[in-house]
Design a protein that fits this description.
By secondary structure, this protein is of the alpha+beta class. Helices cover 45% and strands 13% of the residues. The strands form 6 sheets. A 4-stranded antiparallel β-sheet has the order 6-7-10-11. It has a 3-stranded antiparallel β-sheet with strand order 4-5-8, covered by helices on one side. It has a 3-stranded antiparallel β-sheet with strand order 9-13-12, sandwiched between helices.
Length: 480
Amino acid sequence: MALERQNREAEKDGWRIDKKRRRLNNSSIDQPNRKETNMNQDNSSNEISKFKYKIQGTEQQAREQGETNMTYTLHNITRLIESGHIPKDLGEWHIQQVEEQNRINLEWKKSFKDDPDIPQVDRVNLFIGEFKVLSQEEYLSNMVRHGEMHNLLAMLQKKGLLNQDDNSDCQLLQVDGYQPIPKVNEGSFAAIRLIADPLNNLYKINQPPVPKYLQSEGVYVTVPECNNSKGDTIKLEYRFRASSQKEANIQVRYWWKRVMTSQKKAYQACWALASEKGIRGPIKAKLTDLMIRASPERTKDSFRSEEKARFYQDLFDVQQTPINFIKKDQPNDTLILPFITVHRKDECNPLSDKVSERYPNEITYSVLDNPLYENEALYHIAAGITRGSLGLNKADVHFNQWISVRKNQLMDSTHIIFQEKDAQQLYLVAGVSKIENKRMRNKRLLEKLHRLKKVDTIISVPLRVIFPFKIQIRETPSKK
């Protein structure tokens, strides 16, 4: 069963680090020629190995610390360097990094005042040029330093040495190197487009491939995939245990249904809480804090143990099944995009006979916080999903998220328009394509749209399904 994969978490962490690092091979502007690449291949492998265990060590230490949100000033850091609590070279490096980031942040804010009409994607692309392109060794070295500084500050905070000064000239910092969640409209939570855009294409997968048994690992694996409109490849890799091929086939069908329904509600709850906190992580939360966001009509004490176990199963599978995103023009450069990353959780035993022991009461998680992706424009952009939509039935969640992301993609449009040739896409996204009777299919589509209107995802619903079919997503600008 899927829960039995829990003993592979540590191994999986190391695998993710190695796989993410592959994309560093293409990070330099000046690409070496083939001869130079062959000559330096061994050196590159040794270089990665040199940093691998240091990075893994700092990450493991950070997980053990759990939630470590800290507020401090650069004056604090200077004082701790002078007192010998922070090594001089590490502290000065950190100050330089912070000052540079503050400079870019101030210019970013100023750009909204100077050029308020620049499209969001274009604005981000302009500022990406501010980031220095690092060599592989520089980048890996910085990852180690970020981890070491984070863990050192967390330790100093526990000792009461990381205290906020009264110096009003000091720049207050939110720490951990964790970046803030992009802002969205009031009454909505943020779905970061770097992962939300690929998710909008999953409707194209009718059923995942028949799972194959991997003798060497003793597990079954299925890898459903599709392409977006640009020809980029989107993959999910699901590994699990089953007693037979028949059981594996059944389990995959059940898993895929959950991917499009209950798992969406689970990770949307995590995204919603992250938006409330204003940071990507780490966020410490009770399991019921997340469940109440996935089911806002409920109360915390109304959730039964069976429901908590199912919700945690969805969170666990979401974490274990990140999206693999491969750009068409960079086939060797795979982005590993986790829905959420769980850093720490209470002790639990998924195989226990007692349901109440199968889930943790608290978890610490983050949402798509990875410095590897800072140069991706969509890493800094979010689509707003209305908080009211969290109360939708799980069968409507995918359609609502699809409309919300498409709405953000069409910033200058008041309608999403489906032509006659797009009819099948509309029915698939809405989840009504399997209804054979056309009148009933259209009726169910309009009913879904009315539910989306009630939660303010759309403005109005057409009276009938006639192509071109227009769904109004914004008010029409008034003429001056």
